[in-house]
Amino acid sequence: MFTGIVQAVGEVARIDRLVGDTRLHIDTKGLSLAGLQLGDSVAVNGVCLTVTQLGARGFAADVSIETLTCTTLRDFGVGTWVNLERALTAGAALGGHLVSGHVDGVAQVREFAEAGRSRLFEIEAPVSLAPYIAAKGSITIDGVSLTVNGVEQANFFVNLVPHTLEVTTLGRVRVGQAVNLEVDMIARYVERLLAARDLR
Question: What is the number of other CB atoms lying within 10 angstroms of the CB of residue 96?
Answer without folding.
Answer: 20
